[in-house]
C-alpha cells in the first residue's frame, strides 16, 4: 500500500470503500433475513460483447460483489464479432426470463453495435443501470424507477458524510449520459434541491463556475482536470474519474488518477479518493438496484 | 392596444409573434407544396377533460393555428367526471388510428386523473408535447424524437435573434417537467453548448446566480419574479410566465404579466414580451412537431 499523499492532509475523506461495504452488509442482511423467504435469490445478468480487458475487470468485480451479498450473478459472453441481432436475442431472452431481476449490457460495445439502440432493448423494469430512455425520462420527471448507479453513489457519499445539498450550489463537470447528465438532474430534484450548474468541454470559465460551488462532481473524463484554483475552500469534491497514467516510479509502470488533481485536497473540505471513492459506491448502488428490482418483482 | 411601456425602451424585443408567424407561413407552404402529395393532411388530436376556461382558450388557439397552416385538428372533449379509464380508451383509439399524427392531452387534468400515468399512455411516436418518459429520456440523451414545445420555442427565439449559446452562461429559473427541466437539458446539449444553471424555489441566491448569466429563461411561474437587480446589463431574457393580475386601470379589471418585471427591459439586452413572446412560439413548435410526425409517418 502507498502512503497517503501529503496533500491529502486537509480535506476529509469521502470514503466510498467503507460506505459501500456498509451498504453491501445491509443488503446481505436483508437477503439473508426478510428477503430470504421467497425461494430464490435476486438475479443480475451481465452481458458482455468482446474482450475489452477493462470491462473484464468490471464484470468480474460486479460478479464478486453479487456473490458476496447473496445475489445470483449470471454472465453471458458474446464474441466481439457477434451481430447486433445476436445481442438482441440474448437481451430478449433475459427480458422474458421470470427469475432475472436485473440486466446490464457492459460498455463499451464493439463499433458495429449502436449503444443507443441497445439501451432501449432492455426491459425498463429490469434496467438496473437506468439507461433506458424511459428510465432517464422518469428520473427527469422526478419519479425515478432506478437511479443510475454512479450518480446514486455520489449522492450517497454526500449524504453519509452529512453534506447538505438543499439550496447549495453544485457544479457537475461533464454531461455524459451515464454520469454527468443524470447526476445534474438528480441533484436538482425536489427534496435534494441543489442549485446545479452543468459544465462541459465548451464551458469557457470553468474556474469561475466551480469557484462558486459548495459541491463539485468531477465527471469530465479528463485526468486531473480539476485544480486547486478551481475550488472554493471547504467545498465538497467528488471525483468520478478513473484513469491509468504512466508512472515510471511504480513497478507496474502506471498509477490510477481521477479527474481531480491531488492538490485539491489542500483546499477542499471533503474529497473522494481514487480509487476507493466513487468506484465501490457505483457497484454498491448496482447491487441495491438489483435487490430493489427483485423486491418489486416478488412482491408484485 | 396599449402603448409600449416606457421601460421597454432599452432591451431589443424578442418578437415571438412575428417569428411564430414566419414559422407558420413556412409550414403552410410546405403543406401546400412538397407535403401536399400524400392524399391527406397532418392530423393533430387534442383531448380535453373538463371545462377549465384557460385550457378552453389554449385548445381553441391550437385549433385555429392548425387550421391556418393546413393541419387537420381533431378535438375530443370529455366531461370533468370522466374516469381515467375512459380517457385511456380515447388515447388508445387515437394511438391506433393511422391518420392521427400527433396527440396531446390538454393540462390541467381533473384531480382524480394522474397526469404522470397519462403521459405514458400516448404513443411516444405521436407525443408532440414530448412528455412521455421515453421522449424525455431521449432528449436527455441528446437524441430527441420531439422537443417540448415551449423550450423549443425559447431556443428558436434566441437563434432567430442571433443570440449565441455556445459557451455562454444560461440560467433557467424553474424545474418543471414541461418547461424548466427540458429547457435546461436542451440548452446544454452538444451543439447548443450553453453552461446551464437550474434555479428553483430552494435556490438561496437567485440574484447572484442570475447576475452571472448571459441568457436567462424565466419559467418559475411567479408573476414579475425577475427584477432588474437580477440581470446583468445586456443579457438576453426570455419570459415564459403568463399570469392574470388585477388591474383596476383596465376595463377588464386585469392585465397579463410574465415572470419578468417590466423594469428588466431597462437592463437586459433582449427581452421577450408577454403576451407575444413565448406563447405564440409554443404553438408554432407544436405545429412543427405535428408536421414532423406526419412526415416521419408518411415517409416511413
Draw up the topology in text.
The structure is a homodimer of 300-residue chains.
Chain A: E1 12-13, H1 16-32, E2 43-49, H2 53-69, E3 72-78, H3 84-96, E4 102-105, H4 115-119, H5 133-140, H6 149-160, E5 169-173, H7 180-187, E6 195-199, H8 206-211, E7 215-218, E8 236-239, E9 243-246, E10 254-257, E11 270-271, H9 278-298
Parallel strand pairs in A: 1-11, 2-3, 2-4, 5-6, 5-7, 7-8, 8-11
Antiparallel strand pairs in A: 9-10
Helix pairs in contact in A: 1-9, 2-9, 6-7, 6-9
Question: Can you walk through the features of this model?
Answer:
The structure is a homodimer. The first copy, chain A, has about 300 residues and is an alpha/beta fold. Chain A folds into two domains: about 40-125, Leucine Dehydrogenase, chain A, domain 1 (Rossmann fold), CATH 3.40.50.10860; about 150-280, Rossmann fold, CATH 3.40.50. Chain A contains nine helices and eleven strands. The longest helix of chain A is centred in the C-terminal third of the chain and has 21 residues, at about 280-300. Chain A is globular, with a radius of gyration of 19 Å. Mean pLDDT of chain A is about 95; it is low at about 1-10. The interface of A and B includes residues 120, 140, 193, 197 and 203 of A.
